[in-house]
Amino acid sequence: MSRSAHPAGPRHADVLPEGHYSAPPADLNALDSKVWARTVERGEDGVVTVGGISVTQLAEEYGTPAYVLDEADFRARAQAWRTAFGADADVFYAGKAFLSRAVVRWLHEEGLNLDVCSGGELVTALSAGMPADRIAFHGNNKSPQEIERAVRADVGRIVLDSFQEIARVAHIAQSLGKRQRVQIRITVGVEAHTHEFIATAHEDQKFGIPLAGGQAAEAVRRALQLDGLELIGIHSHIGSQIFDMSGFEVAAHRVVGLLKDIRDEHGVELPEIDLGGGLGIAYTSDDDPREPHEIAKSLTEIVTRECESAKLRTPRISVEPGRAIVGPTAFTLYEVGTVKPLEGLRTYVSVDGGMSDNIRTALYDAEYTVALVSRTSDAEPMLARVVGKHCESGDIVVKDAFLPGDLAPGDLIAVPATGAYCRSMASNYNHALRPPVVAVREGEARAIVRRETEEDLLRLDVG
Ligand code: LLP
To answer: Residue 432: what pLDDT?
Structure first.
């Protein structure tokens, strides 16, 4: 995001030396379609609607804070990924971004597969009727119970993440009289251009088996020898919120290099290659994500080219987008509780949620935008920081944003692009009750995940 200060004038921001803020937008009432879910628009009365329902009605029925998810947008994005990759590739939605039983059903109906990474995600997927053979099971330390559950359910693949796990899954499968389809996750040594905590293909980290030093080749040797395993491919995931395709290019080159070595050593051509997820979305107007069809074209071309030069049959490609499907489809609706102007600094706007419903700002320095959605305003823009109600000064939802200067308690504001990694990373910090996820479609709203209640909190407290 640009860091230029806004034009001089008697506003709170003028003395700020450095920040993540740009000049205030020309029209604070406008909603940039880049960051808002597709059916979001501002009605003639100034109130924002989604799927034909006003945010004031949603706030009245479901309370705030609430995650509001545009179901039509979710389905359209899922379908766009599916269509872009076509019948010769598989799209696995990464459930860690946001998973619920309704989401599983939508994915099933739209023809996507599902990547899960815990027993909890697996049970959610199975209980909502996702066919087991369309589920991939991930994780760097799956418990024996989780592995057994996945093998018994006949999941389509388990992605092996360590030497111990190769032996563990083989042993469990064999003792159940099964042969489990597996991929091996390797780290290809790519530095993805993203935040350190969400970059995953450099070697100094916990995921995968390094290609370097022949470790991945050794993992393949072991997997091929074990009766309980059917090795179907190699997996690589280089990180998250990535815009630059060059990391995928290097990763594909190295994965195909390994496939070639496997062919040369074992006479086996593995049929699949999974390039993971990690495709970025627009959190602010400055982000320019690519469309699924461009990504599909680019990844398919890269793999095909690499295989041609290695004289390998092109394997079936799979990808695992999470954020790119669900991220843009939801916004978080908050009610303003207090507005505190700090002379010469900025105005602190406290909302009824915070780091318990969106930890990404505190954790990754993530940038978000925000808009007044319950009315329009012609007031002068003020530089605001949207903060939560938690007992922590780092409890920031939107670090720097312009909001109308007449913002007042009771106004509804919304933060777009919160569909991914917000509800799924939500916590009960300060015994906050986690917000509901309200799905809206064609004039109808329903909670697909209900709000937590005080009874839910007390039910767990068995002391
Ligand atoms: N596949 C694998 C093996 C993954 O580990 C991940 C994400 C994905 C796919 C999906 O990545 P996506 O397309 O959603 O970027 N909490 C962080 C992101 C952590 C991602 C972990 N793995 C955040 O809020 O940015």
So the answer is: 98
